[in-house]
UniProtKB/TrEMBL annotation:
Keyword match Ion transport: no
Keywords annotated in UniProt: Membrane, Transmembrane, Transmembrane helix
UniProt keyword Transmembrane helix present: yes
Stretch forming the signal peptide: none
UniProt domain Yip1: residue ranges: 25-182
Topology relative to the membrane: Multi-pass membrane protein
Cellular compartment(s): Membrane
Transmembrane segments: 44-64, 84-111, 123-156, 168-190
GO cellular component, one term: membrane
InterPro entries: Yip1_dom
Name the UniProt record assigns to this protein: Yip1 domain-containing protein
Superkingdom as given in the UniProt entry: Archaea
Amino acid sequence: MTTWVEHPEGGRERGPRGVARAWVEVLVRPRRFFRNGVAPGDQAPGLVFAVVVAVAYSTGLFAFTPDRIPSFAGGPAVSALLGLALVALLLAPAVLHLTAAIQTVLLLVGVRDRRGISETVQVVAYAAAPCVLAGLPSLGLRFVCTAYGAALLVVGLSEVHDVSPRRALAVGALPAAFLFGYAFGGWTAFEHVLRLAGLI
């Protein structure tokens, strides 16, 4: 799941500059990004990208919603640092690969000709790009970020696995609901938006 290809064909650039470029490209030109930036077996840059997004999201939560900081010995500052380390080393990789596993099973059921697991992991990782900002103290912004992330997942599945947007939506709905609705708090934000609109 964490294979690092030294010289991938069409894979992502490494390092902080590569992460920054990937973030901009997937937000601005998602179809081109998923078409050219996802390579077989080149999961490590995607994993690093997902960890960066998760840490940025958690940093926003901890900074603006202190009651979200887990309680460890040493006070709030130490607890926040330990919490971020836990996110980076355990939670982000686990959620990424669980989501990718769910997505892979649905692709096996719903798509006859598809690319490999590695490419699916990368699609899930890069689709989370908007959630860098989802931890800021605005449920409206969180809703936009998570909805855009779900849309990016559908676009990525469509481009990488060469299926119609409708089929990509059908096989991607459950993983999107888990990742963006639950893990990144999109359902709470969605309820807030509906409440503001007077619909609930």
